């Protein structure tokens, strides 16, 4: 199994970017009373302890969500803050939700939630914190391919790999094209890291050629520590919701001085 452990990075600046956009899109979808489908290809364990040894070792959450809360980066009532409040009401002030718990906090029990996670330890932890999602102990790309087009048809797919497998950079554009062809009304959101070596460049070129009307939003920040290769965070969204430009503009202002 892969060695990536998100507990060391939970709540960092990349999470803040990704989760603010995710929460905004989920909030947009729930503005209509019609049920929806939400899917994730790489769900992780769903809940992280910012007071634990892993988070304290890197200090990335201190520069991310902890600083954001202290300095009021997000406005009162922002859907990410609402999700965080729900999760901390259950798990305490040091809890930080991964995307599965953000989704459960903002969606409704009559919505259809499908969470895939291949790592046995991670899905075992996820099983203990989700309330009404259906878990799939399998490759997330295979799950999405099997379920699309889902029922209900309106909804969203989050693709959030660790990119430890370098082949993901080549396989993601054709995979997303295949899903979009099967599910032409679905919001398909891909998170990707911005690294010093620019390895995401060819992937993004291929995606923008296939989806010229998609949203590509990137923010930049200083490396978390010396020798750390990530210098930013990106989201590529096929069928972006109407009005999302206001949220990306807000994030641009937040990240500009970082």
TrEMBL record:
Enzyme type, top EC level: transferase
rRNA processing as UniProt keyword: yes
Catalytic center residues: 160 (proton acceptor)
Catalytic activity, reaction form: adenosine(2030) in 23S rRNA + S-adenosyl-L-methionine = N(6)-methyladenosine(2030) in 23S rRNA + S-adenosyl-L-homocysteine + H(+)
Keywords attached to this entry: Methyltransferase, RNA-binding, rRNA processing, S-adenosyl-L-methionine, Transferase
Signal sequence segment: none
EC numbers on record: 2.1.1.266
Residue(s) at site: Interaction with substrate rRNA: 4
Keyword Iron set for record: no
Pfam families xrefs: RsmJ
Residues where S-adenosyl-L-methionine binds: 19, 42, 99, 117, 139-140, 160
Subunit architecture: Monomer.
Role according to the record: Specifically methylates the adenine in position 2030 of 23S rRNA.
HAMAP family noted in UniProt: 23SrRNA_methyltr_J
Family: Belongs to the RlmJ family.
The name this protein goes by in its record: Ribosomal RNA large subunit methyltransferase J
